[in-house]
Structure formats: C-alpha cells, structure tokens
Specification:
The chain has about 625 residues and is an alpha+beta fold. Among the domains are: about 5-105, 3-Layer(aba) Sandwich (Rossmann fold), CATH 3.40.50; about 125-270, Beta-Lactamase, CATH 3.30.450.40; about 325-400, PAS domain (Beta-Lactamase, 2-Layer Sandwich), CATH 3.30.450; about 420-530, 2-Layer Sandwich (Beta-Lactamase). α1 (about 5-10) crosses α4 (about 80-120), α4 (about 80-120) packs parallel to α8 and α18 runs antiparallel to α19 (about 585-605).
C-alpha cells in the first residue's frame, strides 16, 4: 500500500512510522501484495519479530482471510476498509500491544520475585544473597546500579551492604548528608522517586552536578521496614537508555524491598538463634561433669536453649515423658510435653531466661504414649549472664490426686459439720479452739473466728465443769477411757445465759498420745421448756383429777348422810314435842336435835365442794377447808 495513507493513519492514531523493524512495536503486513511471503517470513524471524504485534491487510474473500490463519495477527483490515478503518485498527492494535507488553513485564517481574523469594528462603549466606538481589534487579530493569544501604537509629551515616556492579563492596560507610533521597525515605517511610534527577528540588546544587556528571536520569529509593522502622533503603539509578521508572516498576520494587526487609530480619533472627544455640550447647557441654549425676537422679532434668529447645534430657526425664534423649534433642519443650496450658510452662521458662529461678510450678502435660501427667517443675538459668535454662521436674500425678481427694473429703466433712444442728467443738489440750461449727455459733453466740482467736474452751463451761469432764474422759466409768457417754451438762452463752445440753465427747489420740478433744452438744433449751410445760400440764391435770374425786366423794357423802340425818332430826323433833322443858330428857333431846342440824349444815357444805382447798390441822397435817372449798358457790 502507499506510504502516504499509512503515515496519515498512523499520525491520527498517535503512532510513528519507522523503517527499521528493530525499532517497531506494530507491523502492518499487506498480504494482498504479490510475492509478500518472503518479506513476511524475514520480518517474523528478525530479532524483534517475536515482540511485534501484527495488523494484516487481506482481500475480502475466503482465501484472503484463510491466509492469516498461520500469522494470527492482532487485527485484520480489507482494502475496502483502509481509508476508513485503518486509523481505528491501528489504535486497537497499539492498545493490544501495550497490554501484551504489560502482561509480559508483569510475568517477568513475578518470576523474578518468586526467584528472589526462593533465594531468601534457602540461602544462609546473607552477603551473597544481597548482592544477587541487587545484580538481578539491575539486569531486569536495565539500570546503571542497584544498591542496598542499611541505616542505624539516626540519619547521619549509612552502610552499603551490597551493590549490583561490585560483588566485593560491603560494609562501606557513607555520609547520608550527600544522599538526601535516603534521608527523606528514612524520615517519611515512603518511596522517593526522582524522574528528572538532575533538576529535582530535593537535591542540592552539589548533588545535581554529581548526578548530571554521571549521566543519571532517574533515582528511586525504596524503604526496607523492619519491625516498624526503616532500617535500610534500596537505591536504584537509571542511566543511559533508561530515562525513568514507571509506576508498575515502582510497585514491583516496593514489593521487592519489603521481601528483602523480611529476609534481612529472618537472617538476623536466624543468626542470633544459631549464636545463642551454640552458646547454650557450649554451656550444656560445660555440665558434662554433672551428666553422671543427672543420669542417676530420679527427677527429670532438661537443659534448654534460649528458645526453649531441648539440648539435653536425662534418662529419668525421658522415661517420664515417654521419649528418648535423642528424640527430644532439638525439639521445642512444648512439642515433647504437650502442656494443657502452655502459657504456664512458657512463663516458667521465660522467667528462667530472664535470670529468675522458679520452683515447684505444677504443669499438666500429655506424653506421646497418651498419658496425662502432673509435673512439678523448677527452672533456673544456667548462669546469671546467659539465657540458657536448666529445668527439673518430677511426677506428682498420684500425690496431686490424693491431695484432691483429701481436699474433697475435707470440704465434704466441713460442709457436713457446718450443716449439723448440733454444736461440734474441738480444742487442743491447752484449750485453744480448733473447730467451732455453725451449730456452736448459734448455741454459744461466738463466731468461729472469735472462738478460735479469743476463746478458751474453759470459758464455754460453768466454773469447774471443764475439769470434771476431762477427768471423766480419762476415767473408765463414763463410757471407757477417752470416751464420754451421753450426759447432761450446761454451756455458757456469750450473754451469760446457761444453756442446758446433752453432750458426748472423746479424746483423739495420735501415736498413743492425747492430741485434742472433741465434743458434740445438743441444745436442750427447747426440750427443757417443753418439759416444763408438760410438768405444768400434768400438775394441772392432777389437780383437776383430785378436784373431781373430791367433788364426787363429797356429793356421795352428802347424799348418803342426808338420809340418816333427816331421820335423827325427825325423831329428835318428835321427842321434843312430847317432852316438856322441865323434863329431864328434854335437854339431851334438844342437844341431839341441834347437833343434828349442825351436821346437816356440814353435809350441805360437803355437797357444795367444787375444788380442793386445804388448811393446817394438828402438827403438819392438812385437812380439807370446807368453807373455802365451797365458798365460791355462795
């Protein structure tokens, strides 16, 4: 096709037509031109051929479209569409070319990042690793130089640890006053990119002249953050054909800088761990004279490095943890003990690493054989100036189980004693209270704390009673030696009231010797009050029964006496009527009549008796008082 229409279309598409294929990005091939085949082959096999994006001109016929199958161009256009479509087709082809180039560069960046990451993970030679990073970055980006600069706490001095163009350059100190881009990165923690370095305002006149003299077009400085601080800078300088850094490249370099920072931190940690481990192993070796002792002690003994990894484990410890010394060596303590609460174990080891000795800390662990053990552990530093730790432990599983059972039994007995309504009081042989339950508190008015702190057992009894009870306990007559069968006593309430109680007591012996006494007291105040009420009722009932008997007897007597008295009084009255007053017999008959009347009055009173009332008679005798016993009826 003619050159002029192509130039015009390219200009409208924002492109430029070049003669050298090595300078081209797009290639327009006219497959309708006679003998075009060799020219197309030569183009595709040139140095730049694989990177070209093709736009094909074809005839609007089936065979014309078939001719492009092997070329696979980015787009096609026919002769009829050339005047109208070429510009648009060129723009689309250019966009596809840029997308393809961007994808290719991204793939290249990703491949390099993966390579660097693999090197970071595998390499233990930090110096060679850092030089390899800077060299590959310089090659990948086609820049003049890539440098890694480490900075300290301040911003006055830096150290070049690796440079892409000099494998031997390391530990070279530089004055950061001559590198304002590095100082700015350290200050802000953000990348600094100077696309026109020779005129950038961040540089001073001296730095600008130096940059211009070296032919440097652009500078990029990326931070290496380690534990929240910028501890290094990745510095790149573009010269020659490289004029600037793209946004994609800056993003890629930022990722590389972060990965490098992680690698540096890991390398530092690894180096410190290896150093500490070697020191700990040396320290453990210094304990070899004690190895024979450790081998024969019944407690487990382990020597740990500052990361709690096992350096040495004695046979007793290995047997206890169901492992061997060889299997345990190098493993973390948590791995071989599998503690239920690893926080307790690690706090113990951490305290020892700080130089603090800890003793007798219980840790529940699980062994590889599935056993659950309670180990009493003690940890101490091997020496005050280092962090290595010696750990001793013993199996207290059975002991702790017994302690738990005893504690549960004790708690049960305490609850049982406190729930008893009876008072239970125990005291030693000097009278000091050692047990005072809630029943005793209610009975005596003292709290358990007051009783144990201020009270003596003698004060709980009336004077002399405590001594008598102890004599009975030691004698054989009241239930046998050391025992007191049920007996009635009195306790002294805090208020001074005497509390009647039933009590039993015993002496507790330890090894045949008297240890303390214990008494159980039942409060009888309610019972005594009830007995008193019952006695009053019985007395009233007895009185009522006596009154009933007397009333019945009186009624019977009055009834039985009334008949003969009536006859006596009747016959006496008849005799008096037949006799005259001057007759000798009249006076005796009159006396008989009057006495019979008096007897009738007495019988009448007897018939009116309703209660039992007595009066004194001869001496201490008591006789029924008829007047009082029958007076309420009148």
């Amino acid at each position: 096709m003619a050159r002029e229409p192509l130039n015009a279309a390219a200009e409208r598409a924002g492109l430029r037509v070049v003669d050298d294929p090595d300078d081209a990005a797009l290639a327009l091939v006219d497959l309708t031109a006679p003998g075009c085949g060799p020219a197309v082959v030569e183009l595709l096999t040139s140095l730049n051929g694989p990177h070209l994006t093709l736009l094909a001109v074809v005839s609007p016929e089936p065979r014309g479209f078939a001719a492009v199958d092997t070329l696979r161009p980015a787009d096609i256009v026919t002769h009829q569409g050339l005047p109208h479509e070429l510009t648009w087709r060129l723009q689309r082809a250019a966009e596809r070319h840029r997308e393809r180039e961007e994808q290719a560069r991204s793939q290249t960046d990703l491949a390099l990042l993966l390579e660097l990451t693999a090197d970071y993970a595998e390499s233990s030679d930090v110096e060679a690793l850092l030089h390899g990073v800077t060299r590959r970055l310089a090659e990948q980006l086609d820049i003049a130089r890539a440098t890694l600069v480490m900075v300290g706490g301040g911003v006055d001095e830096g150290v070049i640890v690796a440079a892409s163009d000099d494998p031997g350059m390391k530990d070279l100190r530089i004055d950061l006053a001559r590198y304002p881009e590095i100082r700015e990165v350290v200050r802000t923690g953000k990348p600094v990119v100077m696309q026109e370095a020779a005129t950038h305002p961040l540089l001073g006149d001296l730095e600008r002249r130096a940059v211009a003299a070296r032919g440097i077009h652009a500078i990029a400085a990326l931070p290496l953050p380690i534990r929240g601080q910028v501890r290094g800078v990745l510095l790149l300088r573009a010269a020659g054909r490289r004029r600037a850094f793209s946004t994609r490249e800056i993003d890629f370099l930022t990722t590389v800088a972060h990965a490098t920072a992680v690698a540096l931190r890991s390398a530092s940690v690894l180096q410190s761990v290896q150093t500490a481990r070697l020191a700990a192993e040396e320290k453990a070796a210094s304990f070899k004279p004690y190895q024979l002792f450790f081998a024969h002690v019944s407690e487990g003994v382990a020597i740990l490095d500052d990361e709690a990894a096992v350096l040495s484990l004695n046979p007793a410890g290995a047997q206890m943890l169901d492992t061997t010394a060889g299997e345990a060596r190098g493993k973390h303590l948590n791995q071989i003990t599998q503690p239920v609460d690893d926080g307790v174990l690690m706090e113990l080891v951490t305290s020892a690493s700080r130089g603090e000795a800890r003793m007798g800390v219980d840790v529940v662990v699980r062994t590889p054989a599935g056993r659950c053990l309670t180990l009493s552990m003690s940890a101490a530093p091997l020496r005050d100036e280092d962090a290595a730790t010696i750990l001793s432990f013993r199996d207290v599983t059975h002991a702790r189980k017994l302690e738990d059972e005893l504690r549960n039994t004790k708690d049960f007995l305490e609850r049982l004693i406190d729930s008893s309504v009876d008072a239970i009081i125990a005291a030693d042989l000097k009278g000091r209270i050692i047990l005072f339950n809630k029943g005793a508190e209610a009975m005596c008015g003292y709290t358990p704390q007051e009783a144990q702190e201020k009270l003596n057992a003698l004060q709980l009894y009336p004077p002399g009673v405590a001594q008598r009870i102890m004599a009975q306990l030691r004698g054989p007559d009241m239930g046998g030696k050391g025992r007191l069968s049920l007996t009635r006593q009195e306790l002294m309430h805090r208020s001074g009231e005497r509390v009647p109680v039933n009590m039993t007591a015993s002496i507790v012996y330890e090894g045949g010797r008297e240890s303390f006494t214990v008494g159980i007291f039942t409060d009888l105040r309610d019972r005594v009050q009830l007995e008193r009420k019952l006695s009053d009722v019985e007395n009233r009932l007895e009185e009522s029964e006596k009154n009933a008997v007397i009333v019945a007897l009186a009624g019977t007597a009055a009834h039985e006496l009334n008949q003969p008295l009536t006859s006596v009084m009747g016959y006496a009255e008849l005799l008096k009527r037949k006799l005259k007053e001057e007759d000798f017999a009249w006076r005796p008959v009159d006396i008989i009549y009057r006495e019979a009347e008096r007897m009738a009055e007495i019988v009448r009173k007897i018939g009116k008796i309703t209660r039992y009332e007595t009066k004194s008679y001869v001496g201490a005798q008591q006789i029924l008082d008829l007047d009082k016993a029958s007076s309420h009826e009148e």
